[in-house]
Amino acid sequence: MSYEFGSEPQRRAGQDVDLDAIIGRLRSLGKDFERQREAEQERVDQQEEERARMARSGELGEDWRRIQNRIDAGRTTVMDVLSGADRSPEARHLREQAERNMRSLRSQWREQQRSGRADTPLDQMDEIRDSQGR
């Protein structure tokens, strides 16, 4: 039986709605979702730990090393750096570098599309947007 969101289930003669089964299924789905969310958060945390380690060691360059020192001291966050809330010269350099890199990638991808080569990340992003009705 399918229902419109917010509608009450319609009972028909001889059919019982097993609310316990529905609630049990919803709880199970909720637990599955929570496990997936926790696994994804763990993956993101591990990636962030690796980025921080590389930044501290200087592997990501002097700007990231300085930023990471400030992150470790609680004076800024990665989100502040990326959003522009951190207005330090190092943060500004990192944002400018990221913008240059994105422009370069976008240009390369467009050239790939024009030349008819294999799908590019732009194609994949367009497909995702199309599938989501955007």
Entry summary:
With 134 residues, this protein is mostly helical.
What does this entry look like structurally?
The protein is mainly alpha-helical and 134 residues long. The protein is 70% helix and 0% strand. The chain contains five helices and no strands. Helix 1 packs across helix 2 and helix 2 packs across helix 4. The two termini are 30 Å apart. The model has no long low-confidence stretch (mean pLDDT 86).
Structural class: mainly alpha
Query: Secondary-structure element order, as H and E?
Result: HHHHH
Uncertain ranges: none
Radius of gyration: 24 Å
Overall 3D form = flat
Largest sheet: none
By oligomeric state, this entry counts as single chain
Number of helices: 5
Mean pLDDT: 86
Would you count the extended β strands for me? 0
**Spatial gap, N to C terminus:** 30 Å
Helix content: over 70%
Residue fraction in strands: under 5%
Please render the helix and strand layout as text.
Layout: H1 19-57, H2 62-72, H3 78-83, H4 89-115, H5 121-131
Helix pairs in contact: 1-2, 2-4
